[in-house]
């Protein structure tokens, strides 16, 4: 999957390797209450590139895995 093809409302990021795509407004508040930083979707590529090697991209509700740990996104 290409990073640019991932759609959502926002990104919840733990500032290390956990990147979650937020699809619902309620998920923003859940992420903030769990000490995640919220970013706009436009930041996904930069966040992914600066993350540590254990990085992955998943939906906040864990129903969809976009990029598994160790997997490289398509360019």
Give a structural overview:
The protein is globular. It has two helices and five strands. The chain has 75 residues and is α+β, with helices and mostly antiparallel strands. 23% of the residues are buried. It has a five-stranded mixed sheet, sandwiched between helices. The chain has one domain.
Keywords summarizing the entry:
single chain, alpha+beta, five-stranded mixed beta sheet, 2 helices, 21% helix, 25% strand
Order of helices and strands: EEHEHEE
Quote the distance from N terminus to C terminus. Answer: 8 Å
Number of helices: 2
Radius of gyration: 11 Å
Low-confidence stretches: none
Query: What would you call the structural class?
Result: alpha+beta
Mean pLDDT: 96
Assembly of the depicted chains: single chain
- Strand order in the sheet with the most strands: 3-1-2-4-5
Describe the global form: globular
Question: Roughly what fraction of the amino acids lie in strands?
Answer: 25-35%
- Binned, the helix content reads 10-25%
Largest sheet: 5 strands, mixed
* Overall tally of domains: 1
Structure summary, number of beta strands: 5
Topology:
Layout (H helix, E strand, L loop, with lengths): L9 E4 L4 E5 L2 H9 L3 E3 L4 H7 L5 E4 L5 E3 L8
Parallel strand pairs: 2-4
Antiparallel strand pairs: 1-2, 1-3, 4-5
């Amino acid at each position: 999957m290409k990073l640019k093809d991932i759609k959502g409302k926002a990104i919840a990021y733990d500032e290390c390797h956990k990147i979650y795509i937020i699809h619902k407004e309620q998920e923003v508040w859940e992420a903030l209450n769990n000490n995640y930083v919220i970013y706009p979707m436009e930041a996904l590529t930069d966040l992914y590139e600066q993350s540590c090697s254990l990085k992955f991209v998943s939906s906040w509700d864990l129903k969809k895995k976009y990029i598994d740990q160790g997997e490289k996104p398509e360019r």
